[in-house]
Specification:
mainly alpha, about 80 residues
């Protein structure tokens, strides 16, 4: 990227937008040409929010599961070792 006070060229911006579009599941599924930058940023924000909700849900489910397990059980040991990884 350009080193002029953090400015980037139109070409660099287009490349970044294309890369971002490839990361979004909805954009990949539609397999449409390049979306507008504004629409893509809105989709990105929405996707990140949904990922946050999913992480929160999975964290809650894991906490509930751990609360029902015996601390010395093999399953609890496996989960603890996975969380340390």
């Amino acid at each position: 990227m350009s080193s002029r006070r953090g400015r980037i060229t139109d070409e660099e911006m287009n490349e970044l937008i294309s890369k971002l579009q490839l990361l979004l599941p909805e954009s990949r599924r539609r397999n449409v040409g390049r979306a507008s930058a504004g629409k893509l940023l809105k989709e990105t924000c929405s996707y990140i929010k949904s990922l946050h909700r999913e992480v929160d849900d999975l964290s809650d489910r894991l906490s509930q599961l751990m609360a029902t397990m015996d601390d010395n059980s093999p399953q609890a040991d496996i989960i603890r070792s996975l969380l340390r990884s």
